[in-house]
Amino acid sequence: MDMHALHKIGYGLYVVTSVKGEKLNGQIANTVFQITSEPPTVAVSINKSNLTWELIRESRVFAVSVLRQDTPLDFIGRFGFKSGRDTDKLEGINYKIGQTKTPVVIDNAVTCFEVEVVNEMDMGTHTVFAGRVVDAEILTDEVCMTYEYYHQVKRGVTPKTAPSYIDEKKAEVPVSEKYRCTVCGWIYEPERGDPVGGIAPGTPFDKVPDDWVCPICNAAKSAFEKT
Fold first, then answer.
1. Residues facing residue 199 across a β-bridge
2. Which of 153, 165, 152, 146 is nearest to 12 (CA)?
3. For the chain, what percent of residues have pLDDT higher than 90?
4. Would you place residue 150 in the very low, low, confident or very high pLDDT band (cuts 50, 70, 90)?
5. What is the rounded distance in angstroms from the CA atom of residue 60 to the CA atom of residue 20?
6. Cα Rg for the chain, rounded, in angstroms?
7. Selection from 176, 180, 214 nearest residue 76 by Cα
8. Burial class (CB in 10 A: 0-12, 13-18, 19+), 198
9. Signed CA dihedral, 33, 36, 41, 47: sign only
10. Which candidate, 79, 84, 95, places its Cα nearest to that of 28?
11. CB neighbours of 78 closer than 8 A, spacing ≥ 6?
């Protein structure tokens, strides 16, 4: 069975935030979907090991910021590959405190909305939180990021706690011999290089400068291994 087939399901890319007392946090999510229009309700799938899960479970509120297509990888990496238990993910980020007291991320967002949880479903490793939209705003008319665009064009990777994560080492479809970041899993492909990091397409990995870092998690070049 080729689990990559599930990547063809229509996903987006979002920052999901919540609050517990004075603690604010957010994470990247790709599983956010509308359930009904009247009243407007949506759902999100969150891994139980994530700090955001703890905040939503306690406060019963969350906010969603829909990311634009040209969102920088380092912004996605901040919310997707760092833990709010170790760092303040919102430091230096533009956000507002919404009606639910939840931080609503404005940077790189096309739209945003706040949700009050009314139900939840235990899915083992994840919980699906469903709730009523209490506020929503369109911030820009820019194109939204799709998960397929994130994978195919930006060559982004999926956090292990994401619902759509696939362990490539266990996948039946072989991974080509590239260079994988051992911290976040991003793959350096010599034929594509890293234009954002100033590495031209066609640059062999051994020709990449030693001070170059992973565009997702900022890990050093030494953290990469050949796949």
1. 194
2. 146
3. 55
4. low
5. 9
6. 18
7. 214
8. exposed
9. negative
10. 79
11. 89, 93
Q: Which residues of 24-46 are buried (b: 16+ CB within 10 A; e: fewer)?
A: bbbbbbbbbeeeeeeeebbbbbb
Q: Is 221 helix (H, G, I), strand (E, B) or coil?
A: helix
Token pair, residue 71, equals 């969102």
- Residue with tokens 């997702």, as numbered in its chain: 216
Give the CA angle between residues 221, 223, 226 to the nearest 5°.
90
Here the tokens at position 207 are 């020709």
Say which residue, 217 or 155, is predicted with more confidence.
217
**Do the Cβ atoms of 30 and 40 come closer than 8 Å?**
no
pLDDT given at position 34: 94
Q: What region, left, alpha or beta, does residue 101 occupy, with left being phi > 0 and alpha being psi -120 to 50 degrees?
A: left
Q: Is 70 a residue whose pLDDT tops 50?
A: yes
If we measure between CA atoms, which residue out of 87, 92, 112, 102 comes closest to residue 20? 102
Q: Using 50, 70 and 90 to split pLDDT, how confident is the model at 222?
A: very high
Query: What is the 8-class DSSP label of residue 99?
Result: T
Q: Is the pLDDT of residue 156 over 60?
A: no
Task: In whole angstroms, give the CA distance from residue 122 to residue 163.
Answer: 13
CB 227 within 8 A of CB 178: yes
Q: Which residues contact 54 (CB under 8 A, 6 or more apart)?
A: 20
Q: How far apart are CA 68 and CA 217, in angstroms?
A: 20
60: region left, alpha or beta (phi > 0 left; psi from -120 to 50 alpha): left
Contact assessment for residue 132 and residue 39, using Cβ atoms and an 8 Å cutoff = yes
